[in-house]
Write a structure and sequence with these properties.
Length: about 500
Amino acid sequence: MSTTDLGMPGLPPPGRPEFPPFPEAAHDAVRDERLRGNLRHATHTIRAKRAGAVAEVSDWAELREAGRRIKDHALRHLDRYLVRVEEAVTAAGGTVHWAADAEEANRIVAGLVKATGEREVVKVKSMATQEIGLNEALEAEGIRAYETDLAELIVQLGKDRPSHILVPAIHRNRGEIRDIFRSEMSEWGRPAPADLTDTPAELAEAARLHLREKFLRAKVGISGANFVVAETGTLVVVESEGNGRMCLTLPETLISVVGIEKIVPTWRDLEVFLQTLPRSSTAERMNPYTSMWTGTTDGDGPRVFHLVLLDNGRTDTLADEVGRQALRCIRCSACLNVCPVYERAGGHAYGSVYPGPIGAILSPQLRGTRSAIDASLPYASSLCGACYEVCPVAIDIPEVLVHLRERVAQGGEVTRGGNRVVLRPARGHGAERVAMRAARWAFGRPGALRGGQRLAARVRRFRPRTLPGPGRAWTGTRDLPALPAEPFRDWWQRTHGGEEEEK
């Protein structure tokens, strides 16, 4: 049975090559000096600014804990809050649609756009629509989607893929952006000035003029949402440019595609995240633009509003007691900016719209661990813990990574979307299982362990530089640790034996 038959979300569509496993993609990425320079400069700059913004808040630890509790409560009672959202949105004049997977969500959105008679839409930056491949699905239906976020515009014009949650074009420098604007803008609308330079002000002005005609012409807008307030059915989008607000207010029809995990119970709960999200993402005290809408209002904003609530693997993730904490994520990208692996490999190596540490635990859960790329993502980490330290909702990413590694190594059986799926151990992990079994045998027999340690100490001068067989991959990028002159047990007995006898 194919992945399409199983309805697995987020995998490359038929006819498109599957992304390579993370080690292969990262192997090429780390050799791109320009990419590494762009990433190093950008992540270090954002990281330093975030630290300063967070340091201004005396109760940051309390806010972080409050955010964790709110999200856990909402997820625990998600069934109840989803019904409340539907009731509130409907009462406010909106229409709610339920999408079990990417295919259903794309079909719903395409149908809604076609019903308006329009063949183009403007889009607010949205991870959910990237996750389901909405732009490509609309294009297949003869509908052109225009990204209006500056970074998303750069990616779209450059026929590229996003590489960062907050700054999708983080892998591009100003010179590259200028070249993209000069060569590609004319194919999408208003061309860039012939004498365009790489100064930020000129690049921003070129994008502003290019997008303005689309805002004034578009009859349909598509968005995601950062949060959905259950008690009133209010959707919230926070941004820094104002392009999102143009999409949310000017079109006659607004379609919002939102993951079911974005719900917060009350307005009081929202207040916590409006403090933690901007500081963790853009290092601002508050976002320049915070847009909120509840259904439709006569004479103000779109006349028609549709909310598409997206599952796409989230319910299955919620069933995992350890992995479900990934659904707390508020998409701030703080974990990416401190991750040494992301800084060197870049976002494209993750083969997902969710790169970095959060992508390494979210993508395999939403998509399953049966593909080579998803089976490799839990290993795309040094487990240093920096991601957990900066997460504003306290997602223990290292814990989930280890949990998912166990799932990949052991294989097993899960149920997704009503289908029984067998998770087979990824190729190459057989040797790992043998090594773990050998370690369990030795650690369960103190005499054998002591004898092995003493033997290793006596033959330490013959220690090889690399391990043979499957171990060669491990020592190919690491130094094999030196063996001590005597085992720890012997050292302890020699230095503390007398004390033990006195006791």
